[in-house]
């Protein structure tokens, strides 16, 4: 699944949790966090620590894969290798 915002990611994790028929408490207990931390991530993912995200991924048996975006000029390149030759134009 392509995810470009924190809310998309939290929705995906919540959908995964629900499809596994797991409560927020069960997910939290698997990795030693509180139920309200899971709830907070699902409702307001922007304020979640990276450590918490990785704990939630682990609890749901998921992993995070990061890869270059495909070029807008060549969306037929699924590996994203062509886009790696484009210079980044924004300052963060």
From TrEMBL:
One term of GO molecular function: DNA binding
CDD domains cross-referenced by the UniProt entry: HTH_XRE
Domain HTH cro/C1-type: 13-67
Coiled-coil region: none
Bias (Polar residues): 70-86
Sequence segments annotated as region (Disordered): 68-92
Pfam families the UniProt entry points to: HTH_3
Record's protein name: Helix-turn-helix domain-containing protein
Source species of the chain: Shewanella insulae
């Amino acid at each position: 699944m392509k995810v470009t915002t924190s809310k998309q990611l939290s929705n995906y994790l919540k959908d995964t949790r629900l499809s596994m028929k797991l409560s927020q408490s069960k997910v939290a207990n698997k990795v030693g966090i509180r139920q309200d931390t899971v709830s907070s991530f699902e409702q307001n993912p922007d304020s979640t620590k990276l450590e918490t995200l990785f704990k939630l991924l682990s609890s749901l048996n998921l992993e995070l894969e990061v890869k270059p975006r495909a070029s807008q000029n060549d969306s037929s390149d699924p590996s994203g290798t062509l886009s790696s030759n484009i210079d980044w134009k924004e300052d963060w």
